[in-house]
Design a protein that fits this description.
Number of helices: 2
Low-confidence stretches: 1-17, 760-800
Strand content: over 45%
Distance between the termini: 91 Å
Mean pLDDT: 89
């Protein structure tokens, strides 16, 4: 026991000695091989120097120190291997000063970085900075973007980050008009007593400017405001654009004090603390210099929709001034306080009762002026208040009754079910209705043609099961009913996933390039990504990529001459590299495609085989292209993950608008399949075999067995779904047959089809070559487009 104890102490001492202690001036490269880096004093990256922190680096903060970057910092983690600044102070909740960026001319970047317990996770002092894919947790302020006194503030981009559990703000913007805050999740902030918003804007001087773009963020469950802005100088200096955000379940949604700007296309919903009557405004606007514009926002479920005070004059819609931001079209409905009182707009503490607040062309969830006025507290209720002008208004659509039922014949345990009504014009989800029974009758204010889909959630793994009326090959289209219910019938829900699709959209001109948008999605949903392609010679190139996640769109530009794939004049033996965008961060995957012409016997060219592999040699997918059909096998961990039959419709030009491909999922094959060979001309008669891997099942296959003429020829690793037979003797005339099976060390799978290779003698006359014509030409193999082959001299061939 004493020896074990001493060994344990020695291990601790050795571990402590392995840490690198850092303080003072730092530059160069920090690598994960030297982990951990212990910050034992203040750190400075000097002007003119760069500190590169590589993926996987652990930075242990041992005291209240600051990392000041007067030069530049590039901390580039990855999704699988982030960079972590961990608080290791004696008090585990004590704050350290955080990262301070001071270089006003040279940009720094943080990517996949985790920072905890910073007074400021990052404090950007008018320094150009990009922060993406990072997490800031348990800080006092997640980050501050500071540019007070700067005539032209530095560009700062903050995107795809998670900022949570901060004592005060998630993000504090102090007069930076060149900041873009987009696609972040900001939650559970404002844990302290002070009223600090998840995103807070401030201005403290008459000459200040604070006009950031705040877009596509999810701001929810913060203990104070979601977004707030306060111009202390009342100088009209704060004019943000707040666009396409989801702002929900905060104390208050948006609070604008002496602030204007443009607020559009946001969902501002369910902002209140249950039972707290001081909370609950979807939007608060206060101050004589507050004249923000609101368009197309959905403001529902708050205690109060709009709370307007202190002579503020927001524009909720004004059709008389022909202003680009004054069209209204907001939905302001179902804002009801804890006492059951409707408050669409509540005016209060308003010194100038003669003011008129324009709120025209909005949907109030009511059909008559009298019904709308019930939810508005203005001059008509109290002579000391302004008048809210809400006419003309948009009448709500009378709901359509939708009836039907669903059947699920599978065996998976079901946790929940929902009905989705999907636009057949845009493929967007119009309404989602939870289902508690297999039969349903519900209402929805439908205004356009739609299809009905039922989605079940499995209880065991959370996966979704789908079904739609008419099936996914030809979904039934329904139209809103004014008085008669719309019966969508019995919807069959299956275990099999709906088919994917690819659709070529309308080409656009980008400079000198004509870009063809290839839109990808699945089922009857709208697209989730677009590859913008242009043709040059025999190749297609990828210029841009659009990806949509949770309704938010991200646009990624690629350098010119980024090869997507070869698409015409393809010959056996061709090879090219394909670049594709994998995620919203712009991660690129470069793969290599090779083309083989495979046979089942010497007189019949069966199909072309396209094999795509990663740089390390792992198979991504294989595509069989044969007359009348294409089959795509997608691989994962050396198994076939999915098998899809590719069907072609619409425009025969693969780059033409309306060209359409549907990928129908096939039943999994749990055995190796589609064995074929690549013929090699005499005298080099080695035989190259290709086959498709089995789908993953109960067996854990470790090898393949290759049989030649019923004799075991080779056992090869399971990662290798091809085999070159170098032992064949081409001098022997005769017939040779091959088959393949999987092997786990004790059990073989079922075997593939046989392939037979017929070897010709040296004195055999040469047959006329097989000629092949292709249609369409060019053809987009990247989309697994069906290719029609016409073979001459395949039948009744004879040597002359």
């Amino acid at each position: 026991m004493k020896n074990l104890y001493l060994s344990f102490i020695l291990l601790i001492c050795i571990s402590g000695l392995m840490a690198i202690q850092v303080s003072g001036n730092q530059s160069g490269i920090w690598t994960a091989e030297n982990n951990p880096y212990e910050v034992v004093g203040a750190i400075s990256v000097p002007n003119g120097s760069n500190l590169e922190i590589q993926a996987g680096v652990l930075v242990h903060i041992m005291g209240n120190f600051q990392i000041t970057v007067a030069g530049t910092m590039h901390a580039m983690g990855t999704a699988a291997d982030s960079i972590r600044f961990i608080n290791m102070q004696a008090n585990p909740t004590a704050l350290w000063s955080g990262l301070r960026m001071e270089n006003i001319s040279q940009a720094s970047e943080l990517n996949h970085v985790y920072v905890e317990y910073g007074t400021y996770g990052v404090r950007c002092m008018n320094a150009p900075l990009t922060v993406r894919n990072s997490r800031f947790n348990l800080c006092e302020k997640g980050m501050e973007l500071y540019a007070i006194g700067a005539a032209n503030p530095a560009n700062v981009l903050v995107e795809y980050n998670l900022i949570e559990n901060c004592i005060q703000n998630g993000i504090l913007i102090s007069q930076n008009s060149n900041a873009v805050i987009e696609h972040n999740e900001i939650r559970f902030n404002g844990t302290g007593a002070q009223f600090r918003a998840a995103i807070q804007l401030s201005n403290q001087s008459a000459g200040g400017s604070n006009n950031p773009i705040i877009a596509f963020n999810h701001i929810h469950h913060n203990f104070k405001q979601g977004i707030s802005a306060w111009d202390v100088a009342s100088s009209g200096a704060i004019n943000p654009q707040i666009l396409n955000n989801v702002i929900s379940y905060n104390y208050t949604g948006v609070y604008l004090l002496q602030t204007s700007g443009y607020v559009a296309d946001n969902e501002i919903s369910y902002n209140f603390i249950p039972g707290d009557m001081n909370s609950g405004a979807g939007v608060m606007v206060s101050g004589i210099t507050s004249e923000p514009y609101f368009e197309r926002n959905t403001v529902i479920g708050n205690y109060t929709g709009f709370y307007i005070t202190n002579n503020a004059k927001p524009v909720l819609g004004d059709l008389t001034i022909f202003h680009a931001w004054a069209q209204g079209e907001n939905i302001i409905a179902e804002n009801i306080d804890a006492n059951g009182v409707v408050h669409s707009v509540f005016c209060d503490a308003y010194p100038t009762a003669a003011f008129i607040i324009k709120a025209e062309n909005n949907n109030w969830g009511a059909f008559t002026p009298a019904d709308i006025a019930v939810g508005i507290n203005d001059h008509n209720d109290n002579a000391a208040l302004p008048t809210v002008d809400f006419e003309p208004f948009i009448s709500p659509v009378s709901p359509t009754v939708v009836t039907g039922s669903y059947v699920y014949s599978g065996t998976a345990p079901i946790l929940s079910a929902r009905l989705e009504l999907i636009s057949m014009v845009t493929n967007a989800i119009l309404f989602v209705i939870p289902l508690t029974e297999t039969s349903f009758s519900t209402q929805a204010p439908l205004t356009e043609a739609f299809s009905a889909q039922v989605v079940l959630t499995r209880q065991d793994n959370g996966a979704f099961l789908y079904g739609c009326t008419g099936g996914y090959a030809s979904p039934t289209i329904f139209y809103p009913g004014d008085f008669v219910p719309v019966d969508v019938g019995i919807i069959q829900v299956q275990d099999q996933m709906p088919p994917r699709y690819e659709l070529m959209g309308v080409p656009v001109t980008d400079g000198i390039l004509v870009l063809h948008p290839l839109m990808s999605g699945f089922g009857i949903y709208s697209w989730d990504k677009i590859d913008w392609l242009y043709a040059n010679g025999d190749y297609l190139y990828l210029k841009k990529h659009t990806i949509r996640v949770d309704g938010y769109e991200t646009f990624i530009d690629l350098p010119e001459n980024t090869v997507w794939k070869k698409y015409q004049n393809i010959q056996p033996g061709d090879s090219w590299q394909q670049t594709e965008v994998m995620d919203v961060s712009g991660t690129l995957r470069v793969s290599t495609t090779t083309v083989q012409e495979c046979s089942i016997d010497v007189d019949n060219v069966a199909y072309q085989l396209f094999i795509r592999k990663t740089a390390s040699g792992s198979v991504i997918d294989k595509t069989i292209v044969a007359p009348g059909e294409s089959i795509l096998f997608t691989y994962e961990n050396n198994y076939t993950k999915t098998t899809e039959a590719v069907l072609r419709y619409g425009n025969p030009d693969p780059l033409g608008e309306g060209a359409f491909w549907r990928f129908n999922v096939q039943s999994p094959n749990f055995n190796p399949s589609y064995l074929a060979y690549v013929p090699v001309p005499y005298p080099n008669m080695q035989v190259q075999l290709h086959w498709q891997a089995p789908a993953m099942h109960f067996n854990n296959w470790t090898h393949y067995r290759v049989y030649r003429n019923m004799d075991l020829l080779a056992e090869i690793p399971f990662a290798q779904s091809e085999y070159l037979d170098l032992t064949y003797n081409p001098s022997i005339t005769g017939t040779t047959s091959y088959l393949v099976c999987a092997w786990d060390g004790s059990v073989e799978s079922e075997r593939t089809n046989w392939v037979t290779v017929v070897i010709l003698s040296n004195n055999d006359q040469v047959l006329q070559p097989v000629s092949v014509s292709l249609y369409p030409n060019p053809v987009a193999f990247s989309q697994q487009q069906n290719l029609e082959f016409c073979f001459q001299n395949l039948k009744n061939q004879s040597a002359e």
